[in-house]
Every structure is written in C-alpha cells, then in structure tokens.
Design brief:
This protein has 113 residues and is of the alpha/beta class. It has a single domain, classed as STAS domain (Transcription Regulator spoIIAA), CATH 3.30.750. 40% of the residues lie in helices and 24% in strands. It contains four helices and seven strands. Helix 1 runs parallel beside helix 2. The longest helix is centred in the middle third of the chain and has 16 residues.
Length: 113
C-alpha cells in the first residue's frame, strides 16, 4: 500500500492486482491512522487494481463510513470498467464517490453532490 499526501488529502494506492484479503486489510490499517484525525479526506487510487473481491469492497465501504462519521470524505479514482460495473451492481455502493482523476476528486466541494 503506497501512501502520500496531496493538498492535505491522503492518497492510498493499493499495489496488488486484486483488492482483497491482505491488501484490503492493509487499506483498512492505513485508513485507521488517517481516521484518527478530524474531517479525514482520503482518496483511494485503484489504477493498479484489476479486480475487486467482497473483502475489498467491504474495506472501501468501511473507510467511507469512518470518514463520514468523522466529518470527512472518501473518494475513489482510477477505477477500470470491470470494477465500475461491479460497483454499480451493488446497492450498498451508492455511497462510494468515483472520479476519473485525483485533481477532480480533490476539487469537488464537500459534501460531494
């Protein structure tokens, strides 16, 4: 899991091809540190991820709920067609905000429309 900060936004980039198992646990672990702060702003960059299993989707939703509970937000970028289709099929994922680029994700005011 790569971590960086851009314009006071924490960017987490999974490095495995599938967001599941250990990679999902690593995402949650990285997010937990960020969620300790008030109004956390997190972008998860899925550019390197080809697939998303239920544990990965669950991790994204848990991070989203944690951000909302602390007055912040989670935004997702770099989503391929396959993952985008999966996200659209799952009713619980309507809370996930997907953007094309990091600049776009950061520029959208909070709360996202």
């Amino acid at each position: 899991m790569e971590r960086r900060v851009v314009e006071s936004v924490s960017v987490l980039t999974p490095t495995e091809k599938v967001l599941a198992g250990q990679e999902a646990a690593d995402l949650l672990s990285a997010a937990e540190e960020i969620l300790k702060h008030e109004a956390p702003r997190i972008v998860v960059d899925l550019t390197r991820v080809d697939g998303l299993l239920p544990s990965g989707l669950g991790a994204l939703i848990r991070v989203q709920v944690g951000c909302i509970n602390r007055g912040g937000w989670l935004r997702i970028i770099g989503v391929n067609r396959r993952i985008r289709s999966l996200v659209r099929l799952c009713p619980c994922t309507y809370v996930l905000n997907i953007y094309d680029t990091l600049d776009e994700a950061i520029a959208v005011p909070h709360p996202a429309p």
